[in-house]
Each structure stands twice: as structure tokens, then as C-alpha cells.
Amino acid sequence: MHLAPHPSLVEQAYDAILGEIADGTLAPNTHLVQEVLAERYGVSRQPIQQALLLLKNDGIVQDGRRGLIVAPLDMQMMRDRYQVRATLDALAARLAARRCAASPEIAAHTRRQGERILEVGFAAVAAGAIKAMIAHDVAFHAFVYDASGNPMIRPTAEIHWRFLRRVMGEVLRKSEPPISIWQQHRAILAAIAAGAAEDAEALILSHIESAAARLVADAPMGDEADTKRRAQSRR
Q1: Does domain 9-70 have CATH number 1.10.10.10?
Q2: How does pLDDT run across 74-84, given as a tens digit for each residue?
């Protein structure tokens, strides 16, 4: 897969590496070799080097014995991020529903946009395509953020989604195709488009609580990896 020149090669390299970490191609503790990644993506070492530095600053990769490695999952940090995400998503769903309640035109447009994302999301689940499932899940929530009318919500949430994409991949690889996730998305969209602010907020909070519970149930090794990493750091 070669990368196009726009957006910046560094951004594309960042997203490509993070995508392979999220879907399990690059597992925790994998040694990241700049030359190998540069050849894989058809770019020079420079954007790979800069992308790895950004990933290190974000805590997604870290120093290992022979260079940078994929950081193990820190499950407590993930739980903390789910809590922050729940607050942002609840606010977005409530505001989006209020906008729909105030304007039939906005409500109709919101429903059409949401249905398009639901269609591709259900198709990704049917195909068992983990990368696509993650991408469309992120797209649905970004759609809710944008539908809120508050331009600050989406960039604030994106910081946390960089990490949550990883744990979503871990969970999706260990469980059955999550058709229930997209059924919940459909119910959230229906409440938003109907202008039912309280229902939309309650549904999206339940949705995120369910995701957090799935994290604990289906990704138990994360705590062990984190404990091991912390023990090593104290040596």
C-alpha cells in the first residue's frame, strides 16, 4: 500500500501505523523498524521517523531494548478514556437531538447521513472486516459530534479515539462480530433524529458502558501486560 502525497505523509504514516496496531498486524511489544515500515508504505524514512515520534509522544509506542516497540495496552488508562468519551458522547447526542427537534430539515438530513453510515457499518460486520468495523464505528461517533453543532466536541474526542481504536481492535478479534453495536447505533440515530434528547443521551451512555464492559470481559490480558511493564520500569 503506497501513500498519496496529501494529506501530509507524516499524517498518513501515523494513521497507517496506528491502523495496523489497532487491527493486530502490529501486536504489543512488536519492534518497529523504520526501514521496514518505509518500504511497506512506499515512502522515505523521514515521515516514518516523524510519525513514530508522534506515536511515542501519544504513548502508543515506547522505547524497547532495540528501539521503539508497540506499547502494551494500559487497561486502566483505557477505562479512564471511556469515562471521558462517555461525557463527550452524551453531550453530543443531547445537543444533536435538540437541533433535530428544532428543525425538521436538520432532522431529515441527520437521519439520511446516519443511515448511510449504518449501512456500511452493518456491511463491515457481515464481512468480518475489522479495519472497516473500527473505521465506520469511529465515523458514526464523529457524525454524532458534528451533528451536535458544537465544533469543539469532535477534536476533543479525537485525542481519546487514537487509543480507543486499539482496544476496539483487541476486542473485535476476540469476540463474535458485534451486530449488537450497530443495532445500538441505529437506536441512537433514531432518538437523535426524533429530537428525543433524553433518550438519545441515555442510549449513547448505555452503548459506551456496554463497550467498556466488553473491554473488561474480552481483553483481560491488558492488565497483566500493564502490570509487567510497570514492574520492568521499576527495575
Answers
A1: yes
A2: 888 888 989 99
